[in-house]
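STRUCTURE:
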C-alpha cells in the first residue's frame, strides 16, 4: 500500500499486529496526552505519581478505547481487527480508565467524578456518533480532546481550577479545532477520493493539473509540525518543573 493509498499518514501496511499499531493513531494520541502533561505542569505542585496515573487513564480511554470505537463505526482505518475484538478493547480500556478515575477521586478529590462522567460519556457519544451525530462535530472535539485533558490533569494535581488552567484549556481547544479542520478534508481525500479533476490557474495565465497528492501533503505537514510542537511544549514544561 503506497503512501497515497493509506487511510492516514501514520497508518502501517495493513494486516496482523500492524493494524493494532495503526489503531492507536500514535501522533494524535501523543498530541492529546501532551495536553495532560501541560495541565499537570501548570499545577502549583507537580505530583509525578498523579501525573502518571492520569496519563495512563487517558492513554487507555483515548488512545485505545476511543479509537477502537471509531474503527468499529465504519472502519475508517481499514483494519481487519474483528468487531468483537474492537468492542472488547473499548470495554476493557475505558473500564480501566474509569476505575483509575474513581480511585483517584476517592484518594485525591471528588471533583474528578465530574471528569469521569463527562469523559465516559463523550468517548462513546463522539466516536459512535450517538444522537444522530450531535456530539460528533468540531466543537465537541475541541472540548473533549483539547480542553478536557488539560482541565482534568490540572484538577487531579491541584484539586481546584484556576485561571491559568482555563487559559491553557482554551489554547488546547483551539489547537484541537485546528487539528480537526486540517485533518478532516485530508481524511476524505485519502479514504474516499481516488483522483482530483481540476487545474490551477496562475495570475500570469499559466495552468497546470491539480494533483490529489499536493492537496494532502500540505495539511499533513502542518499536522506533523503541530504534533511535534505540542509534544515539545509539554516536555519543556515538565522539564522546567522538574529542574
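SEQUENCE:
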Amino acid at each position: 500500500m503506497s503512501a497515497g493509498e493509506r487511510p492516514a499518514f501514520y497508518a502501517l501496511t495493513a494486516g496482523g499486529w500492524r493494524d493494532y499499531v495503526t489503531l492507536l493513531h500514535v501522533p494524535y494520541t501523543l498530541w492529546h496526552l501532551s495536553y495532560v502533561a501541560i495541565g499537570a505542569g501548570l499545577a502549583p505542585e507537580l505530583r509525578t505519581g498523579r501525573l502518571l496515573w492520569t496519563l495512563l487513564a487517558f492513554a487507555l480511554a483515548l488512545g485505545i478505547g476511543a479509537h477502537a470505537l471509531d474503527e468499529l463505526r465504519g472502519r475508517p482505518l481499514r483494519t481487519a481487527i474483528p468487531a468483537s475484538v474492537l468492542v472488547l478493547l473499548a470495554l476493557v480500556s475505558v473500564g480501566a480508565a474509569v476505575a483509575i478515575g474513581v480511585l483517584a477521586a476517592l484518594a485525591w478529590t471528588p471533583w474528578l467524578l465530574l471528569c469521569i462522567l463527562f469523559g465516559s460519556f463523550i468517548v462513546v457519544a463522539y466516536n459512535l456518533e450517538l444522537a444522530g451525530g450531535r456530539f460528533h462535530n468540531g466543537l465537541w472535539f475541541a472540548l473533549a480532546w483539547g480542553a478536557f485533558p488539560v482541565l482534568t490533569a490540572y484538577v487531579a494535581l491541584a484539586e481546584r481550577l484556576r485561571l491559568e488552567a482555563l487559559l491553557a484549556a482554551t489554547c488546547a481547544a483551539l489547537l484541537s479545532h485546528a487539528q480537526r479542520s486540517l485533518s478532516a478534508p485530508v481524511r476524505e481525500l485519502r479514504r474516499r477520493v481516488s483522483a482530483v479533476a481540476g487545474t490551477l490557474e496562475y495570475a500570469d495565465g499559466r495552468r497546470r493539473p491539480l494533483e490529489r497528492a499536493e492537496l494532502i501533503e500540505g495539511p499533513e505537514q502542518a499536522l506533523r509540525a503541530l504534533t511535534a510542537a505540542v509534544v515539545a511544549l509539554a516536555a519543556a514544561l515538565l522539564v522546567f518543573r522538574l529542574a
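REMARK: The radius of gyration is 19 Å.
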